[in-house]
Amino acid sequence: MAQKPLSHIGIIGAGAWGTALAAVAARAGRKVTLWAYEPEVADSINRQHLNELYLPGIPLDTSIRATTDLSAVSANDALLLVCPAQALRSVTGSMARHVKPGTPVAICAKGIEQATGKLMTEVVAETLPEAVPAVLSGPSFAADVANGLPTAVTLACADDALGEALVEAIGIPAFRPYLASDLIGAELGGSVKNVLAIACGIVEGRKLGASAAAALTARGFAELTRLGVALGARAETLGGLSGLGDLILTCGSRQSRNMSLGAALGEGRDLAEIIAERVTVAEGVATAPAVVALARRHNVEMPICEAVAAIVTGEASVDDAIGGLLARPFKREA
Ligand SMILES: NC(=O)C1=CN([C@@H]2O[C@H](COP(=O)(O)OP(=O)(O)OC[C@H]3O[C@@H](n4cnc5c(N)ncnc54)[C@H](O)[C@@H]3O)[C@@H](O)[C@H]2O)C=CC1
Ligand SMILES: O=C(CO)COP(=O)(O)O
């Protein structure tokens, strides 16, 4: 049977990324309902067509309807999950009874659950077992996407027809989803690059130089690839938009919240203070210890992620972590 077009899209999470995706789906001609955690965010989207808290200054299509009612958003043809990774289990758990069996659910959050070490696909398999999971991930800053600048992402779905329908539903010339079937590869790249971006930020903040940043990015990619392959991901996914592509973007720009948080750490600022002055999430902080625990369980060496985890959990100072990495024995590159 031919796949029905997905004309009604529900977006769960009205932060910067959920709002940017709502803008894209509306431009693609879809009817969009956007779930906001904060009533004032829903109000600002409905009345002023702006999300002043998370995506300030970008006018939104007047057809986007915001709600704080999870049941209203869960009954759409397709759902995009765009809340922070650490909140995803509680949000999907509350949605479960409203989601129709067979609904495609695209995970757009980038992180690993700290309490369990589980990937977002595992969390969704447990909380929404009758949904068809997909992963949307890649190099895409929310502001760039909302402003209509050209971007390309990976859209991974094991069901080809549903994957194609999702691409059709949200793809526009300036937002190009590339279809894939490797969900683990697609989600792992986005989760691990946030941790590596904190490390690159530290290099920038400590003024360790462009050569150090390039070395760290390449060795970070080696770590990401080792873990991905151990978890069954395909190397070509890890080297694609959602892996290497997003790593290059996030490690190279202070527009990234993870990178800029790392830069502030590198400048000697206190983590609690940096977090307290932000409204938006930097997923790498919670994901760093989760990546390290996952890597240890699979006997995968990830020294850069270990160093970031030690810094964000207060087990090591920035200088001790840098010293520890530089003192590692010389080894073969691959
Ligand atoms: N901003 C970006 O450029 C991109 C972000 N992402 C990912 O999308 C996810 C969301 O990021 P953003 O929208 O940028 O974050 P944000 O910091 O702009 O917004 C976070 C959103 O989560 C909501 N929230 C906070 N606590 C919650 C809870 N306990 N339960 C439910 N919702 C809660 C907030 O109300 C807010 O709507 C993250 O995993 C991020 O890595 C992915 C690609 C691009
Ligand atoms: O994932 C992103 C771009 O692809 C956004 O990165 P930050 O969360 O570090 O801002």
The string of secondary-structure elements, in order, is EHEHEHEHEHEHEHEHHHHHHHHH
Structure annotation, total helices = 16
Bound molecules: 1,4-dihydronicotinamide adenine dinucleotide, 1,3-dihydroxyacetonephosphate
Q: Give the name of the CATH architecture of the largest domain.
A: 3-Layer(aba) Sandwich
The major β-sheet equals:
8 strands, mixed
Q: Overall mean pLDDT score?
A: 97
> What class, by secondary structure content?
alpha/beta
The CATH class designation of the largest domain is Alpha Beta
Query: Would you tell me which CATH topology of the largest domain applies?
Result: Rossmann fold
| Strands, count | 8
Binding site for substrate: 110, 257-258
Function: Catalyzes the reduction of the glycolytic intermediate dihydroxyacetone phosphate (DHAP) to sn-glycerol 3-phosphate (G3P), the key precursor for phospholipid synthesis.
InterPro entries: 6-PGluconate_DH-like_C_sf (IPR008927), 6PGD_dom2 (IPR013328), G3P_DH_NAD-dep (IPR006168), G3P_DH_NAD-dep_C (IPR006109), G3P_DH_NAD-dep_N (IPR011128), NAD(P)-bd_dom_sf (IPR036291)
Binding site for sn-glycerol 3-phosphate: 110, 138, 140, 193, 246, 256-258
Provide a brief overview of the structure.
The protein has 334 residues and is an alpha/beta fold. It has helices at 16-27, 39-48, 70-74, 88-95, 120-127, 142-146, 160-170, 183-205, 210-230, 235-238, 241-251, 257-266, 271-276, 284-297, 303-312, 318-326, and strands at residues 8-12, 31-35, 65-67, 78-81, 104-107, 132-137, 151-157, 175-180.
